[in-house]
Amino acid sequence: MINKLLIANRGEIACRIIKTARRLGIKTVAVYSDADIHAEHVKAADEAYHIGAAPSRESYLDGDKIINVALKAGVNAIHPGYGFLSENTHFADKCEQNNIIFIGPSSEAINAMGSKSRSKELMFEANVPLVPGYYGENQDPAFLLTEAEKVGFPVLIKATYGGGGKGMRVVRDSAAFNKELEGAKREALAGFGNDKVLIERYVEAPRHVEVQVFADNFGNCIYLGDRDCTLQRRHQKVMEEAPAPGLSAELRKEMGEAAVRCAKKINYKGAGTVEFLLCGDEFFFMEMNTRLQVEHPVTECVVGQDLVEWQLAVASNEPLPLEQDQVVISGHAFEARIYAEEPSDDFMPSSGVLTLFDMPNEHTSDLSAVRIDTGVIEGSEISAFYDPMIAKLIVHGANRNVALRQLSLALEKTAISGVATNVSFLHTLANHTSFIESPTSTHFIDDHISELTQRDEQEQTLQLIMAALVYINANTCQTSTSPWNTLTAFSLNASNHYTLPFVAFNLACQRNNDAMTLVYDTEHFAVNADFNGNNLTAFINGDKHTAKFVLDEQSIAIMHSGNTHQFALKSKHYVAEKQNDGNSLQAPLNGTVVKQVASVGDTLKQGDAVIIIEAMKMEYTLTAPFDGQLTQFYFAEGDLVSHGDLLAKVEEA
After folding, report:
1. Per-residue 3-state assignment (H helix, E strand, C coil) for 350-410
2. Which of 120, 222, 375, 634 has the fewest C-beta atoms under 10 angstroms from its C-beta?
3. CA-CA distance, 302 to 649, in Å (whole number)?
4. What angle in degrees, to the nearest 10, is found between the helix axes of 116-125 and 249-265?
5. Rg, C-alpha atoms of the chain
6. What is the DSSP annotation of 442-457?
């Protein structure tokens, strides 16, 4: 019987596991790095222990440190969550050696599926369809190139022990193969401690459908429906839904039974996910994740079960609570992953402190079927050291259309500032006609990227007017008397006509005794407003709009209907953070220099790779801005850099 549980993870998944453990009367122990000393999972647990520096290799990936904490705290079980050590056979073995229950399958099962090459061999034996490729041990670059040419371009280089799109590169011709191979191996080593890769044919327009399986210690194994995880960018899932739309009952059954065969082939125990590429009515085994998935909440919604509770029960040697014919799928669920990133800037990750974090939930919202899984609150820091996911927004409706409407409304009620987010992008995605009407392919976001990230000029103008109202209120309302009651120039201690100090917008205010007008370029807006904390109710040309805002000396952030815009202000503090002479390369985000690709003195062509930085588990390559000579590096490999730091200098030819 599990009575004290250590969660070898952080953030959202740690908080989610603690929630179930608390309901079951199980004490919990958290671990944390230097960066997470004030994190929510640390506050939520009954006990918490420090395990090292911020980089995950020195903390959350150090299994020996975590085992030592487990022994010190006297726990009898460890839940690894997902990522980090969740699929690490050495860690699973160490738990067993120390008489600690590992909440997951055996190390043999992890090893069988953790190696994507070995898993393909096993699936061939289990009569599960496979994508053509090379899954062997030989990692010589020349040999792998030969195998790629045999498979036929385009090919997919994939980290054998990877996941989440890390260590994965699409290569369309032999000329680019070695460069992409090197990058994939480096990323795989950094993320998973192993740089082994496999090569497989790149299927151009598939859907990504996965099946949730569960097995106990008594020979029982069932599948809990399927999920569609097709909406992705950089091979990273963005939005998931259950059940997968448009599948026949026969196809669902065939995929589910194939997933069960997969689990039984390796004598699997606990929660697992078998991922398939779906092409029409054909499906191909992709991989099996031997852990709980990020998107498990959508399955929980449609089957009405707590999968973490199931994990703890199986680990306690209890039988599965349901048989296959007792599994009933009810309604439809979506999960939207809210990331700290800027979709219009190629989804560049963002880090910083959350100055506002306001999301709907089942306790405070009229959205009765919404669930928020997160590990942050207002004031939390989104660190450059870890994955940039802020929260998971999950909705459950009677059918797909109802669930989509709930998702759209919940995103409109989401207000986050302090970092860039993809909330507006997700809202646009949820309302895209093609996504609403029919199943998509994994290229859907790439194929529609311009319309999904295109700025709505009308919405931007509306938010600019609201930002102006916030500025005027902050600079005129010094007493409890609202300036909107008496709008004379005398009462507001300002001139009848003045320009507002927005950096990139020409906006003026005109006032008389009973009205206020804002002028943007040549367009006039009659305005009035009410304020309640950081809530704004604006009347613009007679139309009512509600929004949330955050104001500081440098900017005003407006969050309205799922859209957020940051408007910079001119002030005595308004100077560029970094003076750039045009010949320098600057860090696009906080991160670590992992490789200097070129050497000082090299002659470069525009677009040549100069330096690679790693942030939030992904690599970013900075290239020469024009033809010229590399004259200086400002940081060495391994150095930490901040957003805007000058990394290197190229002098124009």
Report:
1. CCEECCEEECCCCCCCCCCCEEEEECCCCCCEECCCCCCEEEEEEEEECCHHHHHHHHHHH
2. 634
3. 54
4. 110
5. 27
6. TTHHHHTHHHHH---H
Report whether 429 contacts 239 (CB < 8 A).
yes
The 8-class DSSP code of residue 245 comes to T
Q: Cite the DSSP H helix spans in 155-197.
A: 177-192
Contacts of 143 by beta carbon, 8 Å cutoff, 6+ apart:
none
Q: Give the closest residue to 225 by CA, choosing from 100, 126, 331.
A: 331
Angular region, 301: left φ>0, alpha ψ -120 to 50, beta rest: alpha
Q: Which residues of the chain have pLDDT under 70?
A: 163-164, 362-368, 477-496, 513-514, 571-584, 616-617
Give catalytic residue positions.
291
- Structure-token pair, residue 548: 């949330």
Distance CA 501, CA 507 (A): 8
- Tokens 């990877």 belong to residue: 162
Q: How many CB atoms lie within 10 A of CB 39?
A: 23
Q: How far is CA 495 from CA 417, 472, 492, 509, 564, in A?
A: 32, 12, 8, 9, 31
Give the model confidence (pLDDT) of 87-144 as tens digits. 999 999 999 999 999 999 999 999 998 777 788 889 989 988 888 889 888 999 999 9
* pTM (two decimals): 0.81
Cβ–Cβ under 8 Å, residues 351 and 382: yes
**pLDDT tens, position by position, 399-454:** 999 999 999 999 999 999 999 999 999 999 999 999 999 878 999 999 999 999 98
